[in-house]
């Protein structure tokens, strides 16, 4: 059977569409893997973490993403750490409290870890053990908090997590009076899970929610006093900098979907148009 030119063009279009569809699937495989629960979180920093904790928001000890921190404190102290989180990330905070021997304690205690954003708004945990009770003979108590994905932008009235600094506050919320002041060893760890384009949204912040960032920006542009704080702040930022806000891997989905839709329209038109005049029919018949 002889293959007509129209059929040849149709076959070429079909093969081109299949090839582009495969390329689109390959380019969008990255976000799919990022959403996989088995995907690993950011690695722990190579350098040793800090060995102290702040006692207020202003004196919070800075942690890098994926870094651990330790401190020796007394039961009843408020302990603070701060770390950065950017858009498209889902932070997780874990805390372990090593309690003194049971012979020195008088009863049970309840410990709690809270996370606040750069505006000091308390952020809800998606899941985890944010509050836990330690029995009188318990040696340790472990706490955790998995935050919601950080968004690039949200409405003013919303309490969504936004790029910037995140404060960890660890304290005991219920304790016998006789146990106040007993020594405890505390360890906290932060981890970041990179999410795919399914959690991206339109818009971006002018500046991340980092205390002092507006003052630093004013000093750089010459609008503020010459003694303005430097841009490198104590709370730090992600190792690869803050996200620019305009790029998202949703662009891959959009462009790939548009190309596939155009190819499908051309291929559908070629099928519905038919094969034209048969070869055995003379022109004008």
Provide a quick synopsis of the model.
With 285 residues, the protein is α+β, with helices and mostly antiparallel strands. Helix content is 22%, strand content 25%.
How do the helices and strands line up, and which of them pair or pack?
Blueprint: H1 5-27, H2 29-34, E1 61-62, E2 68-74, E3 79-85, E4 89-98, E5 109-116, E6 125-127, E7 131-134, E8 140-147, E9 164-174, E10 183-194, H3 213-221, H4 250-273
Parallel strand pairs: 1-3
Antiparallel strand pairs: 2-10, 3-9, 4-8, 4-10, 5-7, 5-9, 6-8
Q: How would you describe the overall organization of this protein?
A:
The chain is an alpha+beta fold and 285 residues long. 22% of the residues lie in helices and 25% in strands. It has 4 helices and 10 strands. It has a 5-stranded mixed sheet with strand order 1-3-9-5-7, with no helix packed on it. It has a 5-stranded antiparallel sheet with strand order 2-10-4-8-6, with no helix packed on it. α1 packs antiparallel against α4. The chain is elongated. About 14% of the residues have low confidence.
């Amino acid at each position: 059977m002889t293959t007509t030119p129209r059929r040849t063009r149709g076959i070429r279009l079909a093969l081109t569409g299949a090839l582009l569809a495969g390329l689109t699937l390959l380019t969008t495989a990255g976000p799919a893997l990022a959403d996989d629960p088995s995907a690993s979180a950011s690695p722990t920093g190579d350098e040793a973490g800090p060995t102290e904790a702040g006692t207020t928001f202003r004196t919070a000890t800075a942690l890098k993403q994926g870094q651990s921190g330790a401190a020796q404190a007394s039961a009843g102290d408020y302990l603070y750490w701060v770390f950065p989180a950017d858009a498209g990330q889902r932070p997780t905070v874990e805390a372990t409290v090593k309690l003194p021997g049971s012979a020195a304690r008088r009863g049970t205690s309840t410990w709690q870890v809270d996370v606040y954003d750069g505006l000091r708004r308390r952020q809800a945990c998606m899941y985890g053990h944010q509050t836990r009770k330690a029995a009188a003979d318990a040696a340790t108590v472990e706490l955790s908090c998995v935050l919601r994905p950080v968004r690039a932008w949200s409405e003013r009235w919303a309490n969504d997590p936004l790029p910037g600094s995140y404060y960890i506050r660890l304290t005991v919320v219920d304790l016998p009076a006789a146990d106040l002041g007993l020594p405890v060893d505390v360890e906290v760890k932060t981890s970041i899970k990179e999410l795919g384009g399914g959690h991206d949204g339109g818009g971006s912040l002018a500046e991340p929610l980092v205390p002092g960032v507006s003052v630093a920006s004013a000093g750089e542009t010459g609008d503020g006093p010459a003694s303005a704080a430097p841009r490198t702040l104590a709370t730090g930022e992600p190792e690869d900098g803050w996200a620019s806000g305009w790029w998202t891997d949703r662009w891959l989905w959009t462009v790939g979907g548009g190309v596939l839709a155009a190819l499908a329209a051309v291929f559908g038109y070629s099928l519905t148009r038919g094969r034209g005049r048969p070869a055995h029919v003379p022109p004008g018949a």
